[in-house]
Amino acid sequence: MNILFIHQNFPGQYKHLAPAMVARGHRVVAVGMHQTPNMPGVEFHRYKTQRGTTKGIHPWVIDYEAKVIRAEACANLCQTLKQDGFEPDVICVHPGWGEALLLREVWPAAKQLHFVEFYYGPEGKDVGFDPEFPTTEFAGRCRLNIKNTNNTLNLLEMDAGVSPTNWQRSTVPPRFIEKISVIHDGVKTTQLTPDDAAVLEAKDDRGREIKLSREDEVITFVNRNLEPNRGYHSFMRALPKILQARPNARVVLIGGDDVSYGARPDSGSWKDKYRAEVADQIDDSRVHFLGKVPYNVYCAAMRISKAHVYLTYPFVLSWSMIEAMSMGAPVIGSATPPVEEVIKHGVNGWLVNFFDYDAIAKQVCEVLAQDHSDIREAARKTAVDNYD
């Protein structure tokens, strides 16, 4: 078959699927906006937008106009592929940035399989979840409704969809549920294995070199970017009690200073804001911010972790939590969907209240006090059995 993958940040969720299709003998073409992937056998094409959003446009539609601009650029590139004779049998596309909106105009007959990651809403999801950032006023609800324009149009256009978790699938309007299958993107559990001999060697943002192993009492926290949507503020507020109770504990935080989800702070970064909030309550010499790190450094951190904390709003599930479980890290996760779909308290990890800093600290300390090899084994089994 001819298979077309479209993802703004290709390979994204298709990093395992695309090469697997190449290995099976299919012709695989990919379209993205950024870097050329190192993926032998995949024919990669980059599209470029020709304009930015309109100055002075209604603020509720800035996001949608940006998606239409990307849709146009992607469709123009696809039209060129069509003129060169390429006809996909299946288009696998992440529609979140708008690229899927005009694909039917290029290839009316091609089957479209969409990656259905999330559908926005003012209740029971990320927006309005955190009372520290109330955004459920009337104007905010209206803006959120408009923001779903791209999602709704794509649900109408797709032939079928895939969601990584049952909860993420449940966020879409009921009329579309039957079009969507639950199939996780998958983590490579044959490579992401426990390794008690692992060593983490890195330099933190203070310029301090660290070398840690499983002989050390290491607590880990990982986000793409350190921000409230992924519970960074809750973790930092729990740190003073953790460090007080565990005098030998070392804390390793991995993640950037930017924003992946939600709003930006009024000034500076979320990382610096909450770091400063607890600065006079913690021993900074035992807290190491590594920033964004190479994948092997991240894996070393997971393998030596004695307690890995994963907190999130009700939102999309991070690969990092499943990867941590695959590498045998004891995971303390927030009692929020879709984390609760994966972690069963006291069986393959632990669940804590996202907003209860004392409870987070207490659970981390309890995990550090014992080896929990049975929980680690159960966590890896969960990853292998359900998310490989």
Summarize the entry for a quick read.
This protein is an alpha/beta fold and 388 residues long.
Verbal overview:
With 388 residues, the protein is α/β, with parallel strands linked by helices. Helix content is 33%, strand content 19%. The protein contains 13 helices and 15 strands. It has helices at 17-23, 62-83, 103-106, 138-147, 149-157, 166-170, 232-245, 270-277, 295-304, 319-326, 339-342, 357-368, 373-387, and strands at residues 2-6, 27-32, 42-46, 90-93, 111-115, 160-163, 180-182, 199-203, 209-213, 217-225, 249-256, 287-291, 307-310, 331-334, 350-352. Strands 3-2-1-4-5-6-7 form a seven-stranded parallel β-sheet, sandwiched between helices. A six-stranded parallel β-sheet has the order 12-11-10-13-14-15, sandwiched between helices. Helix 10 crosses helix 13 (373-387). It is globular, with a radius of gyration of 22 Å.
The span between the termini is 25 Å
Backbone structural class? alpha/beta
Number of strands: 15
Shape verdict: globular
Order of helices and strands: EHEEHEHEHHEHEEEEHEHEHEHEHEHH
| Overall pLDDT score | 96
Radius of gyration: 22 Å
Strand content: 15-25%
Strand order of the largest sheet: 3-2-1-4-5-6-7
Q: What's the main sheet like? A: 7 strands, parallel
Poorly predicted runs of 5 or more residues: none
Share of helix among residues? 25-40%
DSSP summary: helix tally: 13
